[in-house]
Give the backbone structure.
Amino acid sequence: MQEYILIIPNNIKNKIIEKVRKEYYNYNIKFTSLEDFIKKYTFNYDNKTIYNLIKKYNINLSSALVYLNNLYYISDKLDNKKMKLLKEIKEYLDNNNLLIYDYRFKNYVKDKKIYIYGYDYINKYYQNILKDLDYIVVDYKYKNNKIDNIYEFNNTKEEVLYLADSISNLIKNNIDIKKIKLIISNEYNEEIYRIFKIYNIPISIKKRSIYSTSEVKKVLNNLDDIDNIIDNINNIELKEKIVKVLNNYSFIKDKKEVIDLITNDFKNTYFDNNITGIKICNIEDYFEEDDYVFLLGFNKENIPMLHTDSDYFSDKEKEILELDTSNKLNINKKIEVIKRLGNINNLTISYKLNDNTTAYTKSDLLLEVNIIKNNKISYNNSNMMNKILLAEKLDNLVKYNIKDKDLDVLYNNYSIPYMKYDNKYTPIEKDKLYKYLNNNLVLSYTSLEHYNECKFKYYIDNILKISVIEDDFKILLGNVCHYVLSHIYEEEFSSDKYFDEYLSSARTLTKKEEYILNNIKEELHSICDIVKKEHSYSTFDKHMTEKSVCVNKDRNIKVTFKGVIDKVMYKEEDNTTYLSIIDYKTGSPTIDLKNMKYGLGLQLPIYLYLSSKMDLSNIKVVGFYLQKLFDRKLDNTKNYEEEREKNLRLEGYSINEENILSKFDTTYNDSKLIKTIKTSNNGFYKTSKVLSREEINNIISETDKIIDNVIDDILKSDFDINPKIIDGKNVSCDFCKYRDICYLREENKVYINGKEDNDEV
C-alpha cells in the first residue's frame, strides 16, 4: 500500500486528522508538523544537549536555545564571528554525539509522497530542505468572507462588556457555548475574567503551571531526596507530570547541576484544563462553519504581531544566507491574517482606543470597513452588572456633573445603597492583630513609605495582602538592571551574561518587550563601563552589592526592620570605616529631605540608617546617593557619551568635610563622580548638598524614631484613611493600586505645606 506523509500545523492537526481518516480511511497516511518534520530530517536536540552546551560554554538556558535553534542555518555563505561560533558549537556537539540524527527517517521519506497543507507560506529555509523530496503544497481553501463592520470602544472595559452582553444573547438564543470562541491577547485576561464572572459566563483563561504548587517547591528544595518527596504526593496528575520532567534528566545523577533547567520545565508544564466553557483560540486555529468567533483588541499594536530585526542573525546577514528577513516575514504575516479572518463565518471584530494610560489605534489590516461606534449593552443579561453600572453612572453625575443617557433607566429599575457607605476604618483588637500577624511583623522601606503615605494603603497591601494585577514589566526592567550591576565587581564580569541569566527565568515576553529589553541590554554596556570608570575617581577599595541589613525592633511580638542596599563603597583606615551608599534607580525620583519629618521621601535616610547598623568598625558616612541609570531627556545635539556620563553622576548628600570627602571622590573640587556638589576657593557653594557630621547623625536618629513610631502605630491597629497632599499634590492616591475601593472623602485628606496644613501628621 502506498504510504503518504501529510504535513499540517499543530493547531489544526486534530480536526484535519479526523476529517482525513473519515474520507481516506483506506490510505496509509502519517501526520506531522513542518517543524517536527524538518528536525527529524536534519537533526534535533534534547535536555542532555542543552545541559552540555550550558556547561561547556558557561552560558544560560536562554543563550543555549538561541545557539541551538540557529545551528540549522550554518552556511559557508557567511564568514563572521557569529557563524564561526555556531560551527564550533556544532562540531563540539557532533563530536560528543549530542545531536539527534534520525537516518532511518531520512531514508524513509525519500520515496514517499508528501503533502503540505494549512501553511500559508513556507519560508526559504524550509523550501531549501524540501527541494529534493517529492512534495506538493495543497492550497488551503479560504472562503474570503467579506468583513463589513468593526466595533470601536473607548476602553477595554467597554469592549469586554459588549462582548459579555453579546455572548449572553447568543446563549439565550440556544447557541451551544462550545460554539463560541474568543481570540484575545493577554491584556484582556483579567477584565474578561472579572466581567464574565459577573455575567456567569464560564471560561478557561489561565493555564496553571505546576511550578506554583508547594509540591514542586519541595522537590526543587530537596533534590537529594526526590523519591521520598514524590512518594508523598497525593495528586496523581501532579505526580505524573513531576516524574515526567525529572525523567528528562535521568542522564545526570546530581539533579542540582540542572536545577535551572528543571525549574524552567516545571514553569512550562501545566495542569490539564477541562474546558467546559468558552474556548480561547488563535487566528490560525481551525473554526467550524457554525462557530461564533469574537476577536478583541484589533489594534495596530497587537495584530499582527510583527517580527523585528533582533534575531541572532540580522536582516543583512539573513539576505546573505538566503533566509527570510523580518520585512519579508511581516508581509506574509499580514497576508495570512487577512486570509484567515476572511475564512471565519460568524466573526465579530472590535478594538479599543485607550487602556489606562496607553492610547491605541485600529489595525490597518482592514481598511474598507464600516466603524460602528457608541455601542451600548442591552442591560438584559446581568442584574449584578447593571447595579455596578448604576453606581458608576451615579458617581459620574455626583462627582463630575456628567449624566449618562441610560442613568434614568437603571435608576428606575434598581435600588442600591448609594452614598450610604461609611469608609471609616474600624480598629481590630490588639490580640487579634498579633494572632493574624503570627506574632511577627516585618517592615521595610517600601512598607514604611506606604504607611506614611496612607495608613489604609499599608493595611490593604501588607496586612490584608490583597493581590492586585500590576504591570510587572517595569518591575522586570528594574530587577534585571539591579541584577547585572550587583555582579559588576566580579573578575570576569559580563553585563550580557548576567542580563541573559536573569531573563532566562523570567516569564514569556512579548515582541515589544523583547525589543525594549534588547535596547536596554545595549545601554547597560555603556552604563557598566561608566560605573567602572567612576571607581577610578575614588580611593574606596572595598565594595558590597545587594547588602541585606536586618534590625531587631521587638515589642510584645517579634519585629524586624530590613532592607537591601544596592551598593556600599568603603575604605578602612586608622580603625575607621569611611562609607558611601549608592542606590540605583531606573526611574527619575526626586531627592529632597524637606518632607522627612512627615515620614516621606525616606529612601536615602533609610539606607543611611541601615548602613549605621552594619557590622563594620567606627563607621563614618561620607555620602548617600541615588544613581539614575537612564535619562530619556539627554541632549542628542551634544556629545551623547559625555552627556550620559554626566547623567550617571551621583545625586544625594555628602559630608561637608573636604579632607574626608576627598577619600571618596578625589575629583570633588570639579567632581566627575558627584552631581550635587561644587566648590570654590571659599569652600562649598551654597547650592551644594552637603551635611555636617552632626546633621548626618541627626538624620539617622530621626529615621530611627520614625520607624519606631510607625511600628507602634501599626501594633495599635491604626490604619485610618489619611492620604497626604503636599504643596497641593496628592502623593498618596494618584498611583495607588487601591484608590477605587477606599471611597476617599475630603475630610480624610491630610494637607502638608499647604493652606489647609493639618497638624495630625
Notes: The CA atoms of residues 306 and 330 lie 6 Å apart. Residues 383-413 form one domain. The chain has six domains: 3-138, 149-204+277-372, 210-267, 383-413, 537-705, 721-761. The mean pLDDT is 89.
